[in-house]
Amino acid sequence: MEFESASRTHVGCRRKLNEDALLAGNGRIWAVADGMGGHHAGEVASAQVVDALSQVAQDGSVESVLSGVVEALEKCNSALLEMSHGKFEGRTIGSTAVGLAVADGHFACFWVGDSRALRIRGGAIERLTRDHSLVQDLIDAGMLAEEEAEGHPNANVITRAVGVHSRLRVDSVSGALEPGDLFLLASDGLTRLLSEEELCAELLRASPDAAADRLIELAVQRGAPDNVTLVIVRAR
User: Fold this and answer.
1) If residue 205 lies in a helix (H) or strand (E), which one and from where to where?
2) In terms of pTM, does the model score above 0.90?
3) For helices 196-205 and 208-221, what crossing angle results, to 10°?
């Protein structure tokens, strides 16, 4: 199975620094990382995550690739914690991570934080990830309606990130690939501005390259208060 991909990142309309990073596909892995910490700390963290993922061995099954991804992120987590206590004088330096790995007709999506992976199959869009966030925990507990999430005062609070806690937990989902499967990896700078229905419509309307341009354009038109990063991957 072959894959067509496109990727974009944009600083947005309010930020001076782009703390997002992406892995545009070094064979069988694509990823988006959204750094946190400010003053270049987030930029360093997201770059470290992408660099770690770029070095994962890609031979073998999707399970073996995923195992390499988890190991790489765990090592990156330890390195960022060490940097936090050293160069950054105890200041938090962390990053979300969401990615897609493919091998032998199968895929695996992995994530830490609130960057998302979505898949379009048969014209319908499905969110493959569950946000590691305070708001999502409240939704799951029945204490908050999904439509109230974006306006919640703690909408930016995430409960997991690479580089924040000594023990890193990486979630993943996997399954068989089908020709035509279309994956979107995105930082919350995009998913907070466009609904899943809008994302689906734009992704189905054009090639991955043209859709990537259009999604960035829409985000900027809507004020893009955060950095915006996305990777689109289509199986064929």
Assistant:
1) helix 196-205
2) yes
3) 140
**153 pLDDT band (50/70/90 cuts)?**
confident
**Rounded CA gap, 47 and 80, in Å?**
11
Q: Do the strands 228-235 and 182-186 form a parallel or antiparallel pair, or are they unpaired?
A: antiparallel
The residue count for the chain = 236
Write the DSSP symbol of residue 178.
-
